[in-house]
Structure formats: structure tokens, C-alpha cells
Amino acid sequence: MSEPMIGSPGTNASAGETAKGTAIAAKKAWRAHLARGADATSAIRIGVAASFTADTLVPFIGAALLDEKTVPAFTIGPYNQLFQVCLDPAAALGAACDVIVLLWRLEDLMLDEMTGFVAGDATALARARDKLAALTTAIHQLRSAFDGMAVVGVPPYPTGAAANLLALDNAIGALHRTLTGQFVDAMDRIEGVRLVDLDAVQRQIGLTASFDARHWYLYRQPFTDAFLHAAGRQVARIVMASRRAAKKCVVLDADNTLWGGIIGEDGIDGIQIGDEFPGSAYRDFQKLLLAWRSQGVLLALASKNNEADVWEVFDKHSGMVLRREHLSAWQISWAPKAEGIPAIARALNIGTDSLVFIDDNPMEIAYMRDARPEVTSILLPDEPAEIVAAMQALTLFDQLEVTEEDRKRADMMRAERDREVLGAQISHADFLQTLDLKVDLFRARTEDLGRITQLINKTNQFNLTTVRRTLDEVRALASSDDFRVYGLRVTDKFGEYGLTGVVIIAISPDRRRWTIDSLMLSCRVLGRGVEAALVGGLANDARTEGAVELVGSYIPTAKNALCASFLPEQGFSQIGEREWRLALDDAPAILLHITRLDGKSDGDRRDTQFPAAAGE
Amino acid sequence: MMTARVAKVFSEVLGISSDQVNDETSPDNTPQWDSMAAMNLVVAIEDEFDVRLTTAEIVSMRNVAIVRRVLRGKGVADA
Description:
- The complex is a heterodimer.
- By secondary structure, chain A is of the alpha/beta class.
- Chain A has 24 helices and 19 strands.
- In chain A, helix 1 (15-35) packs across helix 2 (58-67), helix 7 packs parallel to helix 8 and helix 9 packs across helix 12.
- Residues 1-14 and 598-616 of chain A have low confidence and may be disordered.
- By secondary structure, chain B is mainly alpha-helical.
- Chain B has a single domain (4-73), classed as Non-ribosomal Peptide Synthetase Peptidyl Carrier Protein, Chain A, CATH 1.10.1200.
- In chain B, 53% of the residues lie in helices and 0% in strands.
- The model of chain B has no long low-confidence stretch (mean pLDDT 92).
- Chains A and B meet through helix 1 and helix 11 of A and helix 2 and helix 3 of B.
């Protein structure tokens, strides 16, 4: 029934040429950067060590990071000395690195074993596994000697003389599968190691287009620029995901974005969504949106339509995968879409710069970019068959750790809407009483540190000092006796908010002063008395451990005005321009309706009912 | 006579000005022409002139004059 597609010009025919052009442009950008002598301004130092000549990879990692406005400087490790690099990274890579990238190929590390395996040597596989185990041990050792991020390559499919790709028994294929599977499993068990899948990059580029035998024989550098370009971008993507907050919400156009056609003109029977192309392409996009949602990305709608028409599609069209309950906010009207953006952000308690706007209409995109430059606006391809691939390529939602809170966020936002409905019906004080709020302030356990690091790096608004930290830094603080890393979990009768607060305390050498190094709360839990329970809990613990004062500071940023009065509101007295102090004998009032649960490290929980504060 | 295209490739990859590029330019008198630059030169020359160099040609290219001779031998008129 659908008409045959006629390929739009400039999509596939010139893709190879374009890729070559961007690879050349990337190298030029990096050369220009070096020519400016800008190394000194670098924000991140990356050590690269490989079982092959890695020098030609560096410009591509560098250019991809410059594109993200991050200035790297590189140290290249000695050729094919991964073990030495792991055992003594400082000696092999010089100055302290923030990131170490380790890349290797099977044929560089275990060529004899590969050859033996192909020849039917029964011991070859066991010997190859032994070498893999030795590499795993070395990477373990690297993790104890180096507290930055280790990015380790999954080896690509062997190439060149070692490969004989189309041999009828495909012995090398079997060996590669076995060994990479074992290696990936082993790496998954080492904390702080990130995999960069060079096997996947090689598939993307194509095995033949990835390998240059001349460069291998002449320079021990096996790869083409096409491969190096893609591999460099993938390394940069991992580095950026560790340093940048993921976007939190995607704001979607409806007509010709979620379905083909225009509901207001074509009607519910005329739009295309379902099993048949092009409806199937839109449905696959909807499935991708649900996958994003399960990673913690909130879905919202910004559509110029009659609201009833849009809901008719959501509620009644059998081809829709996306349902109304999947949406966390919407603005459906004939007003300019940019005008609805603040309302969406407000409803979700996030900044407008956490929004990604997706629309098929270049005019809408241009208008949004002009009116709301802080929103990331993405034009949907007008070829339906290309939508999913283009959207999968977005890196805006990249997160290295997807936590339980992320997975539940969208559902928790629905519970939030239900709470607001209840809140509107009764007075605020009564509302708090009926919420049955429980606040659990607990010493962070190892399994909490991923989520805690995420909060540290993405909380902008209710954040007293806005100190950002890596997972390794947080881990170090959590195991130090001079610091306390607390998590805060909030529950009410509608459900769990999850781990939504972090406090880091620095304890003075005489143990008498607890200083709030960092304190942040997710906006979702504010205004319910959680703030007071938090300070009460901290004061309690500090007092128990013999401290006499709790000191905190407020460092203003462009975004954290929300917590400017937090410390004075909680009974702290000002002792400096930005410093505030709470004497611990002035016990802070704990609100009646707050129950604090003390999570203990063994998982047991002791309920503590705080005394009612006077006047509550 | 040095052609603009050849001068451009060498000046970009080696990070030297194009009037510093002449037939005698070689790794011996140009410290920027190190092994990394040699790799990059091969890729840049192939991209710019749309040719494919053999390993023998790559190994032989020890100054700019030789590179130009190789390119002219491959039918590149303005090398």
C-alpha cells in the first residue's frame, strides 16, 4: 500500500566521502589546536597505551573532545607494553593522568596461541586464556595504582596474516568470540573500568575498511583513518559521559515525529503508526523512547494541536506503543512551543537546559534554538527509515551508571503528579501530615556510590557548594575516617523517591567540628520538611560522635539560589561572609511528621521517631 | 617549481609554513617530519591526490622531490 521509496539525494551515496571528509577535518582541528600551543590549558590528561602504534588515534580522540568543549592533553605509552603500563602507570605515562586508555588486539598479545589454535594444537586455547588472565590481573593492579578512569578496549576481530577471515572452519572467529567474551566478563567485575568496544566500532566501519596492511607492516599501526576516527569518537564519548550530566527529559513533537501524518488533518484513521511502513518506523522510534525512559529519561510532549485530538491517538490508536501514562509533562496548544518549555521544566523540577527538543520541522527547531538556546534542539530526519538510527546516535542521554533511581524515575514522576493532586485538595500542613513521610539518612555503602556520584555531578539547584567529584574521589572519601558520606532516601505513602540527597562531611582533626563539604537535595523532595530532618539527623550523628558544632557554607552559582537561605532557615548563625554555624547544643527542631530511619551497614534498620517540635 | 597543493599538504601535516616546503625538505632537515608525521603524510597525500601508495613508494619517499616524482608517475599533473 505504501509507495516505493525513492532514495533522497545525499543520504547514502556520498556517506563514504562525507566520513572521509570529517576524518580529515578532525585531524585538521587537532593540528590547529596543537599549533595554538593550547596544551597548557587542558582540562583533562589522557594516557593512551596500546598493543599497536596508537599515535594516530590521539588526534581523533582529541578532536572529538574539542567538539565537546573539553580540552585534553595526551601522553602516549610505549608501544605494546600494556603490562608495564598497568604495573607502573606513572612511570610509563609520566604526569598523573585523569584517564588511561588501554587498547589491544588478540594478534599482538597472543599470536602464537592463535596460530596454534588454527593448526589444531589442543593446548593453544588454554594458553590463550592464561594470557588473558594475566592481562586481567595487570588491569586489576592498574586499578589499585591509579584512581582515575580506566578505559579498556574490547579487542577487534583479528586482521591481516593472523586472521584468514573466510577460512572454512572459521577457527579465528570462534577463538575471538570465546576470548572477548571471557575478557568482557572479567572487566565487568573490576570496578571503575569502562569498556570501549573496538569490536563494535570495527563492525560499524567494516572489517576491510578498518585495516590497512601497509600501515601495519610499515608502522605497526593496523587501522585506517575511518576506524581511528570512529574509535576516537567512542573513547571521547565515554570520557564525556563521565564528566557531563546527561540530559533529563526529551520534549517531543507529535505529528510526523511520533507518527506519520497530521492528526488534525488526517484523522485517527489517516495517520501512520503501527505494523506497516512508514508507521513501523515511527513505532520503532516510540520503542526507542520507552527504552530511554527505562534509563531515566523523562518523556514530554510539545505539540501544536487540539489537545483532544492528541489524546485520542494516545488512548485509542492500536498502533501506538507510547501511552499517555508514559508522559511526564505536556504542552498541547497553538502557542509557540518555546513558550511551553518553562512550564515543562517547572513541572518536572529540572532546568530548561536539561531538555532535549525533537521535532521534524526545521522551522520549529530554528525557532526553539533562537528562543531557548539552552534547550538542545534536534531535527528529526525527514526520511522515516532513518529516524531510529539517527536518534540512537545521540549521546545526550549517555550515562555510565544507570541506577535503580534512573530506572524508576519516570514512574516516580507519575506518583509526584498524584501527590500534587492530593496537595491541591487540602492545606499544606495537613498535606504534610497525610504524606507519611519517611527520611532515611545513612552512611553511604559501596553500592550507593554510583548514584551518589551521579547526584554530586548533576544537582545544580539545591546544592550548597556545587563541588563535583568522580566516583573514585567519592569512594576515597567514603572510606576515609576524616569524612562522612551520607545518602538520603525519602519515602512517602505514594511511593519511593529513591536516593535523592547527599551530604559529605569533613571532620576536623580534633573531631569537634563537622564541616558540610557538600550538601545537595533533589528538588523533588523539597518543601516537605526533609531539609529539617536532614539537619536534625546530621546534628544527631555529629553529637553522638562527640562534635560540638556543625559548620556549612553557601557558594552561590548561576543556578543554586534555591538553597541560599537553607542554612539560616535551619537555625545556623552566620559567622562569615559565606559561612554558617550551628552549635550542637541548640538542637534543631525536628518536625513531627518526619520519621527518620537509620540505615546501618548490615542492612538492618532502626526506626527512630523524633520528638515533636514545639509549635509544629 | 613547488606546486601549491604539495606545499599545502606538507605545511599542514608538518605544521610549517608553505614557503618552507621545497624539494629538499626531508626528515633530515625538518624535525617536525618524525615517524608520526610520516604516517600522517601518507594518509594526507592519498586523500589530497586521490592516489594509493605502495609500501615501496612510501619507503622511498624521503624528501619532497621524491614524493612529487611518485605522484607525477601516478598521473598527478600538478604535483
